[in-house]
Amino acid sequence: MGEVKEKQAIIKKLRNKYRLTISNESTFEEALSFRLSRLNVFTIAGLFSIVLIALITILIAFTPLREYIPGYPDGQMRRNIEQNSTLVDSLTAELEKRDRFFRGIKNVISGNDFENTVEDKADSIVDPKYKGLQFTQSESDSIFRKEHEAEEKFNLTISGENKARGISSIHFFTPLKGMISNSYNGLIGHYGVDVVGPLNERISAVLDGTVIFAEWTLNTGYVIQIQHGKDLVSIYKHNQELLKKPGEFVRAGEAIAILGNSGELTSGPHLHFELWHNGKALNPESYIKF
């Protein structure tokens, strides 16, 4: 009973009315008067505090004042964060290209024909439904191959050039279908063939490989060089535009450049194509049908 009486007494005190009077000090005339209770004072003070906190929160959240909060990034810092994020993505892409380039060089040195090189799906020109196919040689086909290789072993080409050992069985993709205007002639220093074709025609890679050079040169214009397996290097000159960069891995038949007429040593749109093996120039016509 005592506790109940104490609670009732506290509630009564909270509800008791008090008069707040403001008077003129000289005349003691009453200027303003308020009738309040403790409960009214607590209620008004609480509501005022809530409204004040809400206004301050809105003011900070939707005005530049929030930038003065310690730890909150300002506009310049946010722009730097976005720029750094873009640079990190670009750096990651460049590192992936560099790693792919090193893997290609490693495969070339080891002579494994890029079997361990990672392949992007977009880079493949082979229909996925044909990737699982396996071909076997029949007995008659094997006999025919051996007889043909034995006949060709001591055969010389028209230009007197022996076919490079170990690459005679490689299937080269034609870089450009067209008419040959100038054939290979090592005696005069023309170490390739000139293939004439329509302007803006695509130039294709002859084999899988890694781009080791893709730049502009004064005499031969835009040039791209690709390192392949078995110590083979293919060179494509006088292009209008290059589609690949150094370090990129390309597949046979993949577009690498656009046919053009760039450089000083040219008289019209054509491709000057060279094929090198172990540092020696080969006659491309002995291996590729243009």
UniProtKB/TrEMBL annotation:
Listed A to Z, the keywords are: Membrane, Signal, Transmembrane, Transmembrane helix
Q: Which Gene3D superfamilies match?
A: Glucose Permease (Domain IIA)
Record field: transmembrane: 41-62
Q: Does the keyword Flavoprotein apply?
A: no
Domain M23ase beta-sheet core, chain residue ranges per copy: 190-284
Domain of life of the source? Bacteria
Question: Which Pfam families would you find in this protein's record?
Answer: Peptidase_M23
Q: Which GO terms describe its molecular function?
A: metalloendopeptidase activity
InterPro entries in alphabetical order: Cell_wall_metabolism_enzyme, Dup_hybrid_motif, M23ase_b-sheet_dom
> What's the protein called, per UniProt?
M23 family peptidase
State the organism named in the record.
Answer: Ancylomarina euxinus
